[in-house]
Design goal:
binds fe (ii) ion; single chain; mainly alpha; Ferritin
Length: 149
C-alpha cells in the first residue's frame, strides 16, 4: 500500500496519503525506540522520529494553506498500518532496524513519486526536497546499522 503513495490522481490526495505514511512511520519509530536495547540506536531513532514530526507539521501546513480538508492525527494512522509488519511482535535490535529500514524504503519511494509529479504545488517543492534528504539519511543509516548489528 505504501508504495502507492504519491500516485494519486490529484496533488492534494497524494499529499494526504503522504501525510498518512508519515504518521505511520512515526508510530513505527515510537515502537522501535521503545523496543531497542542499544541506547545509541534509541537516540539515533529519536532524532529520526523528530524529522518525521517536522515532516508531519510541514505537510499539514501545506494542506491547510491550500484549504484541503484532512483528518489530523490518530484517525489517519490506522489506514496505512493495515497489512504492515507489526513491529510490536519483533524481537532483537537487528530485526527492528531491518523492519525500520524497509519502512524507510517506502518513505523514499513516496517522496520520489511526489517529486516527480507535474502538478506539484509551488510551495511543496522545498518541503518535499528537504524531507526526501531526511528520508535518504534515515534509510542509509538503518541499512548500514542493521548489517553491522
Ligand atoms: Fe518523514
Ligand atoms: Fe524517515
Amino acid at each position: 500500500m505504501a508504495t502507492m503513495v504519491g500516485t494519486q490522481h490529484d496533488f492534494a490526495s497524494a499529499t494526504i496519503s503522504l501525510l498518512e505514511l508519515e504518521y505511520d512511520a512515526l508510530e513505527a519509530y515510537t515502537k522501535a525506540i521503545d523496543k531497542l536495547e542499544n541506547n545509541d540506536y534509541k537516540n539515533k531513532l529519536r532524532e529520526f522520529a523528530g524529522d518525521h514530526e517536522r515532516h508531519i507539521r510541514q505537510l499539514s501546513m501545506l494542506l491547510s494553506m491550500h484549504k484541503v480538508d484532512f483528518a489530523a492525527g490518530p484517525d489517519l494512522k490506522q489506514w496505512l498500518t493495515k497489512g504492515k509488519v507489526m513491529l510490536a511482535d519483533l524481537v532483537g535490535d537487528r530485526t527492528i532496524l531491518f523492519a525500520m529500514f524497509t519502512n524507510e524504503i517506502d518513505t523514499n519511494k513516496a517522496y520520489d513519486s511526489m517529486l516527480n509529479r507535474s502538478d506539484m504545488w509551488m510551495e511543496a517543492h522545498e518541503i518535499l526536497t528537504n524531507a526526501r534528504e531526511d528520508e535518504k539519511k534515515h534509510k542509509a543509516w538503518l541499512e548500514q546499522h542493521f548489517r553491522e548489528t
